[in-house]
Amino acid sequence: MIKDPDKILNSLIFDQIKNQNFSVLDIGCGDGKITEFISKHSKLTIGIEPFLNKIDDFSKFKSRNLFFSLNSGAKLCFKDSSFDLVIFCQSLHHIEENEQTIALKEAGRVLKTKGSLLIIEPMYNKGLYGEITAIINSEKRLKEKALEEIKKIDRINFKEIFTTNLKIDFELDDYNDFFNSKIKNKSRKNWNKDIEIKIKNILSKAPEKNGKLIIDNFVNVFCFIKN
User: Fold this and answer.
1) Which residues pair with 216 in a beta bridge?
2) In whole angstroms, what is the distance from residue 154 CA to residue 38 CA?
3) CB-facing half-sphere around the CA of 78: CA atoms within 13 A
4) d(CA 98, CA 92)
5) The CATH number of 8-226 is which of 3.40.50.150, 3.30.1050.10, 3.40.50.2000, 2.40.128.460?
6) 81 phi-psi bin (left φ>0, alpha ψ -120 to 50, beta other)
7) How far is CA 205 from the centre of its chain?
8) What CA–CA distance (Å, rounded) separates 225 from 90?
9) Which of 36, 29, 46, 47 is nearest to 14 (CA)?
10) Where are the domains of the chain?
């Protein structure tokens, strides 16, 4: 299982939760683990995903203030000014190019005045993890588009609080650990032996610590407050 041993993403998000009365929306919540973490520090946490099979997987999380919804970031099923914090954690680039602008506007719509918008986006092909994902997903244009849309966020309605980039070290056991975590249960039409060899070559460059491979990953971070 790929892990963030230093819990950098959790710490980054936790810093934006000012008190336990916050309501939080996690757009494109992935495996739900970060969403579950948020729910332990907030009044209400909702994670949304557009795929039914992922929603079914979230039944393992047990929390009275944690909910998951089958929903698209470009058409949120929530009332205006519903949340204190809205998060895109490495998910904006997963939204289609022509819907990323709409998704950011929708995030602003459901965000309360003085609420925070936190966007974390992976850097393309930077670090060992970036090299691997560039081979698997070919998401260069989507990631470029996401950064373009973030830079165009309405500065009348939003104030930029900070922007930075971070290096996050992931850890895993070996290639089989990576394959079981990221590939085995997902549809990869382009998966072949050549890709497997390329990934093994990348992993061979990873340093080891306490018997684990350390895979560096780089992300851009943007935080805004709604005026």
Assistant:
1) 169
2) 27
3) 30
4) 12
5) 3.40.50.150
6) left
7) 25
8) 19
9) 36
10) 8-226
Residue labelled with tokens 């005045």: 113
What confidence score (pLDDT) does residue 227 get? Answer: 93
Least confident range from 62-71, 79-88, 100-109, 216-225: namely 62-71
Structure tokens of 136? 């698997």
Taking alpha carbons only, the member of 121, 50, 42 closest to residue 85 is 42
CA atoms within 13 A on the CB side of 2: 18
Location of structure tokens 């929306």: 25
pTM for this predicted structure: 0.91
The single residue listed with the structure tokens 């930075």 is 164
Q: What are 180's two structure tokens?
A: 């079981």
pLDDT tier, 25 (very low <50, low <70, confident <90, very high otherwise):
very high
DSSP assignment letter at 92: G
Residue from 80, 75, 88, 74 nearest 157 by CA: 80
> What phi, psi does 73 have (nearest 5°)?
-65, -20
